[in-house]
Write a structure and sequence with these properties.
This protein has 205 residues and is mainly alpha-helical. The chain contains seven helices and two strands. The relative contact order is 0.12.
Amino acid sequence: MQGNEQIIRVIIVSFLIALFLGPVVIPVLKRLKVGQSIREDGPRSHLVKSGTPTMGGIIIILAILTSILTGKFFMSEVWAVIFFMLGFGVIGAIDDFIKVIMRQNEGLKPAQKIFGQLIFSVLLAWYGSKYSAMGTTLMIPFVNMHIDLGVLYIPFITFFAVGTVNAVNLTDGLDGLNTGVTLIVMAAFSLIANSLKETNQIYEG
C-alpha cells in the first residue's frame, strides 16, 4: 500500500501548492495584463469579464511538477506522463500567446490544436504499449478486470486522451465551473488510485 500512500500524498501536495500559487500568480498575470478579450458574438454579460487573466494552466503544471519531483517519482512511466502534460501545456501556451500577445482572440485554429494533441497522445499511447509493464492491457478499477486491447490500444488511448483534454473546454471560463468539475474528477482519480494494489498499476492503470 506504500504506492497508494505516495499517490495520495502527491495529490494532496499538488492541491495545496495550487492553492498557494493562485494568489501569487494571478496578481502577476494581472500586472502583466495577460488577459483575454471576450468574443463579441458571445453573451453581452460576458463582456464585463474582458481582461480576466488567462494562462492559469501554469499553476496546475507547476503544482504537479513540484509535488512529483519532490516526491522523487523517477519512474519512466511518470516521465512519459510529464512529457504528455508539458506537450499539451505548450499547445495551450501557444494558443494563449496568439490570443494575448498577438491580440487574435480565436487563438490556434481547432484543426491546429487537434493536430498537436494527436501527436502527443499518439506518442504517449505508443510508449505505453511498448514500454509499460502492462503493455496493451487495460485494468478496470474496483472490479479487477483486465482487457488486452492489442492493436486497438494506441487508437483507444489516443481518443481517450484527446477527448479528456478537450472535455475541459466545455466548462472552461464559465464562472469557475471548470474548477468545481476538476475537483470532482481529481477526487474520483484519487479513489481509483487508492483502489489499486500495485505501484505500476497506479501509474499505468
